[in-house]
Design brief:
Blueprint lengths: L1 H10 L15 H10 L1 H14 L5 H26 L6 H26 L1 H4 L1 H6 L6 H27 L11 H25 L3 H15 L6 H12 L10 H15 L5 H25 L3 H4 L1
Length: 294
């Protein structure tokens, strides 16, 4: 009897991993296991940060210095090309800083998530756990690397004569939407990296092009105006870029204290939810094949 009970208890903890063609795992048990192992994801994130020296003073300084230097370079280029006047020089620089810090958060989450599955191959081969923890831990790492840039942005904001406004609190909405969107995209590119190992090499060029197409070096309304001036009433095409609504809403609230129109709020939510649902479905439906591919 004792041996039978032991066997029954053991079999209740056995997990059967079927081929991805069997469909998604049972979502209830999967998400419960994901939540129970959240500390594992946090420790995995902290390990990655220690490996990148971002828990040291100089490592954290570099997280700020790199996008700040890029903001200075882009400011010089934008000012020369557009012939920016002294009247809006401070707002242009503050806008560049806010946009670049925000974009680099997304970029770090995307590139970290893309390499998370292949980089965690030893974990996949030696222990069973919900693989979704890997890209989510990469997004967590990117978020904590983003926080020091916010601390540095506030003095820049104040030094250039921009007051702290209550509208800035609303920017948390676009931060949450960007986090959800980044998580979904990290799942997609993390899966693609398993099947196509050149994805990580291609991604930096893709991210750089995405930067130029997003309202970091220019204002959202200016981009729509120039597009419509060149091609007619096609300003709606800007919303096909998910970062247009997220970065546009963020900089409007953070830099200028302007509450964005409902189209930016709605587009940001739509893209974030779509990325999470589609990215999660794609990742979970393929994760049972990861060990074989690795």
């Amino acid at each position: 009897m004792n041996a039978t009970r032991v066997d029954e208890e053991f079999t209740s903890y056995v997990h059967v991993y079927e081929p991805h063609r069997a469909g998604l795992p049972k979502l209830g048990p999967y998400f419960r296991a994901l939540w129970q192992r959240r500390q594992f994801a946090a420790e995995l994130s902290r390990t990655g940060m220690r490996a990148a020296n971002t828990n040291t003073t100089f490592g954290q300084l570099w997280l700020v210095i790199n996008p700040l230097l890029l903001a200075i370079v882009y400011y010089i280029l934008v000012a020369i090309i557009s012939g920016g006047s002294r009247g809006n020089a401070s707002e242009t620089f503050v806008h560049l800083c806010a946009g670049l810090f925000f974009f680099y958060y997304f970029s770090g989450a995307l590139q970290g998530g893309a390499s998370s599955v292949v980089g965690g191959s030893s974990l996949l081969l030696n222990m069973p756990f919900p693989k979704l923890l890997l890209p989510l831990s990469a997004v967590r790492t990117a978020f904590f690397r983003f926080l020091p840039t916010l601390i540095v942005y506030v003095p820049i904001h104040l030094a250039f004569g921009h007051p702290l406004r209550w509208e800035m609190v609303l920017s948390l909405y676009f931060l949450v939407m960007l986090t959800l969107f980044a998580a979904g995209m990290a799942m997609v590119f993390g899966t693609l990296q398993v099947y196509f190992r050149d994805t990580a090499s291609f991604l930096p060029y893709f991210v750089r092009i995405w930067l130029y197409l997003s309202p970091v070096l220019w204002y959202p309304e200016l981009g729509i105006e120039r597009l419509e001036r060149a091609f007619g009433d096609v300003g709606w095409l800007m919303y096909l870029n998910p970062l247009f609504s997220m970065i546009g809403g963020w900089t409007d609230l953070i830099v200028r204290g302007v509450i964005p129109g409902p189209e930016l709020w709605g587009a940001a939510a739509a893209w974030a939810i779509a990325a999470m649902v589609l990215g999660g479905w794609y990742f979970m439906s393929r994760e049972r094949e990861f060990v074989v591919r690795l």
